[in-house]
Amino acid sequence: MMRIPGGIVLRRAFLPLLSVFLLVLSPSRSNSQVEKIAGGFLFVEGPVWKEGVGLLFSDINGNTIYRWSPDSEVVPYVRPSGNSNGLALDAQGRLLAAQHGSRQVVRFEPNGNQTILAARFEGKRLNSPNDLVVKSDESIWFTDPPYGISSGQEELGFYGIYRISSSGVLQMLDKSLRRPNGIVFSPGEKKLYVNDSEARIIYVWDVVSDTSIANKRQFASMNVAGYADGMKVDADGNLFSAGPLGIWVFAPNGAPVDTLLVPGQTTNCNWGDADRRTLYITSGTAVYRTRPLLTSVRDSRRGGLAGGVCELSGNYPNPFNASTVITYRVPRGSPVSLSVVDILGREVAALVKGNLEAGDHEVRFDGSGLASGVYFTRLQVGDPTDSPGYGSVQMKRLVLLR
Length: 402
Fold this sequence. Notes:
The chain is built from 2 helices and 33 strands. By secondary structure, the protein is mostly beta strands. It has 2 domains: about 5-290, 6 Propeller (Neuraminidase); about 300-400, Immunoglobulin-like (Sandwich), CATH 2.60.40. Strand 7 and strand 8 (about 105-110) form a beta hairpin. The model is unreliable at about 1-30 and about 295-305 (pLDDT under 50).
């Protein structure tokens, strides 16, 4: 959850850009479009997909957990919710909530009762549990920043990352972050990612013996004013983090490879639908969904592009405010045209034009002379009458911020 104070100022600062971003969210202009599925809430968070039920999400200020499914209207699922923030499901499918208002982590039982799982550490009240994730051993890991409470209400004096064992024992794992927020495991659960919200830095630890973390190091950062928030990973280990502008996508090595642009103050995301490949996103007063075309990202520093066809990879970093590297593959010697165009399709920079040998290529683009906004890399290899994989135009979105 992001801070309400100051949020309006932040949004106003981005209004010139948002008017451009909204033009991009169409099938012809974007690699992955977002669709608004519900709106009119106060401040949404914590999406989680429950099989047979649909999408559950928190309206923090509305003190309600709502349910949405493709074949029904949005309806209250739990009210009051304790001003729930992050949500998760345990191994039995029971709903877990980090209660922002009640300052505790709870489990909702099938009969409607709440079981308090954590409310105090060493006799002192928790600050404001924010987000949580369930490990395969049924332990629950959560973050506890002070959002929503005053300094006079704080009892602990630090902001921790915690683990609740399957037997109910609360363990403090780390207290080095100023505002711990989003939390997620890597595939295989060997690494734990937590972001420091206001610093917009994502840290990673090694998970030791399933009960502790060690070797803290910076994984990635966001170079745009705002906040980092809820995070999820995909099956390939790519990390999707809510942040300024929308959802930031990082490769397993921390390289920023894409940004899914979302209106509003983006707070969290989660996978849903039967195949768990639709990304549901909470942002401001509304809920969105998208099916990212890139479920596996490529970075030229991690090896080559797979396959024997032309392929334009995502640039990194993205967004960028100085320069960015664009990578692409040419499977055989061919004429190549690589350019940057604006949202109207007008060429603003010619990067490559001529014959290239087969292989992986990259070019640096610094955006000199261009204003902040949304642009696209445009790649054409070979002649349009050539074999499949040649001649067709491929485009990827660039976001330039100065």
